[in-house]
Amino acid sequence: MKNINIAVIPGDGIGPEVIGEGIKVLKAIEARDSNLSFSFTKFPWGCEYYLQEGKMMDADGIDQLAGFDAIYLGAVGYPGVPDHISLWNLLLRIRKSFDQYVNLRPISLLHPELTPLKGKSGDDIDFLVIRENSEGEYAGAGDRLFQGKPEEVALQTGVFSRKGTERIIRYAYEEARRSNRTLTSISKGNALQYSMVFWDEVFEEVGREYPDVETYSYLVDAASLYFVTDPERFEVVVTSNLFGDILTDLGAALTGGLGLAAGANINPEHKYPSMFEPIHGSAPDIAGKGLANPLASIWSASQMLDFFGEEEWGKTVLEIMREMLQEPQQLTPDLGGKATTQDVGDRFADMLGKR
Ligand code: NAD
Ligand code: IPM
Ligand code: MN
To answer: Which top-level group of life is the source organism from (predicted)?
Structure first.
């Protein structure tokens, strides 16, 4: 019997709503598989916790999480607490503390009607973005000089270490080789003459060890255009932290919106817990109304299953998702339906039970 010990951080806004449905789906799997079980331990951390306790998580929060196999997180950030405080003290702190340097964000069209792109099908829009998740523009390096003075300057330094750049690029080459797909690097060496020229050099250097992998390299501005005009160019994509953040919301727009966009923050060596979360935020505009789409969270749960070697279940979850997407009426309003968050989770669990 395999047990996966999961720390659950529902977080803010729609976080608890969507994570509740993801747990429902995992429990339905557990009920069907006598060799697999999950333990769930909830942590009440987030913006409400901050307003009551003055901190986003317990002082020893990282130690509390360290013993778990995985973290399942909803969303962090809510009006009333400055975003840079909430995010840097919870979400980004976890990604950094547990060296979750690979962020896997699939951009796959599961139903042809979900894309705003005319004439594009699931064959055209089916790629994986591998986002560097530990440094770059998110290194936290910078300064505010001469605050409040006319000569004020704000600095935000992108940090690209050889170790950090090589390991994400190598991971991407391995993934392209494993899945027999092309690899595209997205960077910006024409303007960012230190960080991105270095990135491009490392992409080439590491590539010499992978002569069997067909590669492409685009500037991020042109790549944004190609995402929309010819998404079929992309199979596996590797890019920096900030570019990956932005490009994957764009990718979400091509495949059904943020309600369907999943992500996994992984430490491939299994040295620390990895974290699975939808890529959307706390969506204050729809929070507490049962309007949130839980499918992104459920898809992230399937990435968790893949990561722990339960690919058959991961595949089954995606098959059911494809089936559910055939009936728009039974989906949440973002996908044109009338169902609530809970309705979608209930139906998902029910369909799983019948497999
Ligand atoms: P957002 O992703 O919360 O929302 C953007 C838009 O997408 C909104 O219109 C929202 O209603 C919609 N949306 C998002 N998730 C949806 C879902 N599951 N179903 C249906 N519609 C959905 O982005 P934002 O409004 O820019 O940010 C809100 C807060 O969330 C901010 O504090 C931000 O910093 C934070 N945030 C957190 C994370 C995270 O924890 N991983 C990610 C992104 C943003
Ligand atoms: C994401 C989010 C985070 C990021 C924010 C909330 C810090 O936008 O996971 O995509 O920029 O990584
Ligand atoms: Mn984002």
So the answer is: Bacteria
76 Cβ inside 6 Å of ligand 1 = yes
- The verdict on 240 and 123 lying in the same domain is yes
Q: Which residues surround ligand 3, an ion (CB under 5 A)?
A: 245
Distance in angstroms (rounded) separating the CA atoms of residues 328 and 112 = 12
Q: Quote the ipTM score.
A: 0.99
pLDDT (average), residues 87-104: 98
Q: With bands split at pLDDT 50, 70 and 90, how would you rate the model's confidence at 102?
A: very high
Query: Do residues 53 and 160 both lie within one domain?
Result: no
Question: pTM value?
Answer: 0.98
Q: Determine which residue's CA is closest to atom 36 belonging to ligand 1.
A: 281
Give how far Cα 11 sits from Cα of 19, 77, 196, 271, 341, Å: 9, 8, 34, 24, 16
- Taking the CA of 246 as reference, the closest ligand is 3
Per-residue pLDDT, 355 = 84
Query: Which ligand does the CA of 265 lie closest to?
Result: 2
Mean pLDDT (the chain, rounded): 98
242 with 273, same domain: the answer is no
